[in-house]
Each structure stands twice: as structure tokens, then as C-alpha cells.
Design a protein that fits this description.
The protein is α+β, with helices and mostly antiparallel strands. Helices cover about 40% and strands about 20% of the residues. The protein is built from 4 helices and 4 strands. It has helices at about 30-45, 75-90, 95-100, 115-125, and strands at about 15-20, 50-60, 60-70, 105-110. It has a 4-stranded antiparallel beta sheet with strand order 2-3-1-4, with helices on both faces. The chain is globular, with a radius of gyration of 15 Å. The protein starts with 13 loop residues before the first strand and ends in an 11-residue tail after the last helix.
Amino acid sequence: MAYTLQPYEPYNNCYHFVGHTKSRIKFFETEEMRTALSAAIIESVQVLPNTKVLAVATAYTHFHALIQSNLPTYVIGKYLYGGTSRIMRSKFPALLELDKNRLWFGRAIMPIENEQHFKNSMSYITRHNPDNTKKDD
């Protein structure tokens, strides 16, 4: 029997990507940095063909991005995590002082299973506040 990483095809080629900082250190406490991170996420993956960022949330220690693409997740991840790291560390050199080798220490990719999972993920991301609370809490 062949081993698969997921028992289903992603719904509409959608994935929920998450990246977090080393030891959940609050690298992105300012609105300026969170806005720049949101822009960097979009900029990093918009160069990929047939790839769209559907929703983004940035917090003090991490980000969430709902991305639709027919490309392999390793390609999307390379552009997303590598691209945002390069962009953010060039705009905010102080991030280099925190760790000179990388920005993202935790990375996760969750394929969206079905329409309800898509709706739940979209709701979660759009309601996410920087301090990890939800907008309707």
C-alpha cells in the first residue's frame, strides 16, 4: 500500500499555511511590521503561476495564510517562507540580530479538506487578532 501524506485531495487546491517565530518571540509587535509581513506574504507568492492568497492574518509571533494553488506545497512553501524572510529582514534589519540564519522556526501546511473546512479556515484567519484573540471574543 502506498503511503500518502493526506487521505484526500485539497478542496479547490487550498492550503492553510502557518509560520511562527523562534520560541514564539514577539517579532511583529508593531502595526508597521505586521502590515509589512502581510504585504510580504502576498508579494512572495504572487510570482507563482495559478497561485492566490485568499486570506492573511499576522500576529505578534506568527502568521496564517490561506493560499490556493495547483503547485506542490514544497514550491509554495519555498516562496512563502523564504520570500517573506528575505523581504522582512531586508526591511527590518533588527530581525537579523534576533537570528542571522532564519526567521521562521515553525512552519505548517494544512490542506483544506472540504467546503466546511474552507469556511472555518477563512473565518479563523479573518477573525484573528495580533494578540491571538478572535475579533468576536
